[in-house]
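Session log. Operator J.P. requested a structure for one protein chain; no other inputs attached. Running the standard single-chain path with token output.
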Amino acid sequence: MNNDELLLVLLTGCFKISNSRIKPLTLNELSDFMSRIKLKKISAESIINKNGLKRLGLTPQTYERLRMLIDKDRKAKIIGELKILEKNGIKIITKINKKYPKLLNEKLNDSAPPLFYYCGNIDLVNEPGIAMVGLSRTTLKTIDDAIDIAQSMVKQNYIIYSTGSKGADLAATDAAYYAGGSYVVIISNMFEIQEITPALRERLASGRVLFISTVNPMIKNFSLESKNAKYLHAISQAVIVANSDMNDKGPWSGVTENIKNKWTPILVMDSSNTGNQALMKLGIQTINPKFPTIQPLNQLI
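Structure written below.
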């Protein structure tokens, strides 16, 4: 990890060792800080090791907060914590790393998360693919349709993105894997996979699976409003809505935010759910999972 990435980690990461009184920078605060150091032409190495903070013209309160975030002892403890995570197969990637999801930077810009924790093949986050989203309460027909679509997408060399939730999300990722394809799961907290089963270990070893999260797995009770829906819509080439209900906190909230910001084309499965019916009334194209072959994704969208 170079100094530029380390500075991002120190300023924005939440860690087990951190003093709860020292709040990491918000996205807006980070954007302002990065603009300042760019304007002043101050390097990350100078900020971390040579007290370059003094050259930024900060208020005493802001200066002290930043000084505590990049404190030498805190830095050493955080690096130690990252090494523990790495021994457990979990690494970290920042938004200035060339392997960071390109579509997140392009579509979300300053709203893209500054870092992700990950387990698996990080190269998958820049593979073309579709996101499958749906309710955890679902029907067998929806599950079967999600499986058919995932298998067809694998044949067209697309990977599957999902949150791994029960229902169409999980069905699609499993179907992709068993069809010889790959998948990426954006989860709320990497702690969810701390207990790696032999079956999961086998999948991770295949190089066809990746789990990513914005939350440090060592912070079990970390409270954060999940923005996984936003990231899922932005990271993919298209989103397929298996089933959704209007005004729910899951698929529908992500869909409406996507439509508002025009991040990614949406396709919808023909379902009686209120969200799907509303999307079809808006003219969102339906996808028929029972076609023997599905035309290339770029033609669908």
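Operator note: The first strand starts at residue 91 and ends at 94.
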